[in-house]
Amino acid sequence: MVNGEWLNHWLNAGTLVGGAMFSDRDLDSLYPVNSALDTDQDGLPDAWEIANGLNPFTRDTNGNGVGDGEEDNDLDGLDNLYEYLSGLNPNNPETIAGRPDGAVDTDGDGLSNRQEQDNHSDPSRVDTDDDGISDFNEVRGTSPQYPGWYTLPNASLSPAKAGVLQISGVGQYLEMPTNQPRLSLQGSWTIEAWVNMDPAFGGTGTVIGRSVGSMVNYQLGIAAGLPYVRFAGVYNGNLYPVQATGTAVLNRRSQWYHLAGVYDKDAGELRLLVDGSVVATADASVHPSLVDSSSVVVARVGEGFRGQIDEVRIWNVAESGTNISVTAYKPCEGMENGPVLYYRFDDGPFGLSTYSTSVVLTNYTGGISTQQLLGATVEDFAMPLEDWKNNLLNAGRLVNATMAEAVNTPILATDFRDEDSDLLP
Fold first, then answer.
1. Half-sphere exposure in the Cβ direction for 353 (13 Å, CA)
2. What is the mean pLDDT of residues 331-353?
3. DSSP letter string, 158-201
């Protein structure tokens, strides 16, 4: 309608009926300050973009061909993404009076925010890649472990090293994410790992397992020395377990076995493989439901085991015995149609069984405190790189267990790949 509608006594206006009313909604209620919602996927949360004069629905607010995250509105040398990561004002070159934003060291690790930007590291984390070497030591080559080496602060495989999951006692394991649909496998699947049993291992423990209440989504383990793979779901209201168990006791200690379990839903078969050979099968022609969202999910690696575990992989397909044998001896990150979970245990830090260092940071503009807790995460190499931007959302969490450097791992230490020479893996 044209302006001046009031001259027509609001003839064309709508009418509120039945107690309906207008409500005053501020931006804070629509876009909470701490919300991680990022509609345009430019790395900047919607609330932060709105608060700083940017459009959260487009990556290029001013249409100049430069994305909002790469813009430097206040010409202080920090782009908007690093202003956000540093907790600074993108429209003020000196958020802290007298101190250029680029010269501020938000996380107190010895690298200025501008240096963090130049090295693609996180200005709010002392150890961006959580490999046990601070960003400062990686960039300056002052690490006691690798003196004189420049290594990437944002790549846990730089420097290259070979590690394993070390389980030395009761109550030690690695916890997988419990709330991610990628690990809830309702169709065919393959789970595999290398295991090196300690002489003190009693012969019964879980290698990989995910259960939902009374149901077992998938489980690979050893019971009384015999390897097995199993699942248990509900069929016609009853718990329906399926298990394939090997007949030969795994009696080698301090040597590596490769174990794999395959559920082939189309073939209606559950298969167990040891060192690349099928040693047991079980009929799985009935397909029980493995969904029970109301129950507690338990997803762990190494619970009850004692020794070393390496190269844990979970696939959402039934891998053939040939493929399992071929890929068991080489890393598989970056593979097309790769695993949905992949723990290499090469990322470090080694020897830390729990969160060891906490750094409380203050966001200069919002007064928000954040914390980096180091040493308890295991990187999932099936996920996109730079998971630190998600606060390591996809990582596994060590519970009393440790990652340990080892010389006799099935796969030798391999460094990151940098195919486009941009200093990013």
1. 10
2. 82
3. SS---EEEEE-STT-EEEPPSS-GGG---S-EEEEEEEEE-TT-
Which position has the token pair 């329906």? 240
Give the dihedral sign, CA 369/373/378/381: positive
Burial 143-165 (b: 16+ CB within 10 A, else e): beebeeeebbbbbbbbbebbbbb
Q: Which residue has the tokens 């790949």?
A: 417
pLDDT one-digit tens code per residue, 358-372? 443 333 333 333 445
| Other CB atoms within 10 Å distance of the CB of residue 93 | 18
For the record, the structure tokens of 122 come out as: 């996180």
DSSP assignments along 6-67, one per residue: GGGTSTT-----TT-------HHHHS-TT----TT-SSS-HHHHHHTT--TT-S-TT-SSS-
| pLDDT computed for residue 363 by the predictor | 35
Q: Does the predicted TM-score (pTM) go above 0.85?
A: no
Q: Answer yes or no: are the C-beta atoms of 332 and 342 closer than 8 Å.
A: yes
DSSP 102: G
d(CA 195, CA 111): 40
CA-closest candidate to residue 344, choices 298, 297, 411: 411
Alpha carbon separation from 289 to 181, 241, 340 (Å, rounded)? 15, 11, 20
Residue with tokens 């090469």: 346
Q: Which amino acid is at 172?
A: Q
Q: State residue 327 phi and psi, 5-degree precision.
A: -80, -15
Model confidence pLDDT, tens digit, residues 301-311: 999 999 999 99
- Give the position of tokens 């010389």: 407
C-alpha–C-alpha distance, residues 3 and 5, integer Å = 6
On whether the CB atoms of residues 42 and 48 are closer than 8 A, the answer is no
d(CA 186, CA 289): 8
Would you say 306 and 170 are in contact if contact means Cβ atoms under 8 Å apart? no
Chain mean position to CA 355: 16
Q: How far apart are CA 346 and CA 131, in angstroms?
A: 9
Please report where in the chains the tokens 């020897």 appear, as a residue.
Answer: 351
Q: ω into residue 339 within 30 of 0, thus cis?
A: no
- Could you tell me which residues come within 8 angstroms of residue 416 by beta carbon, excluding any fewer than 6 positions away? 152, 155, 157, 158, 160, 425
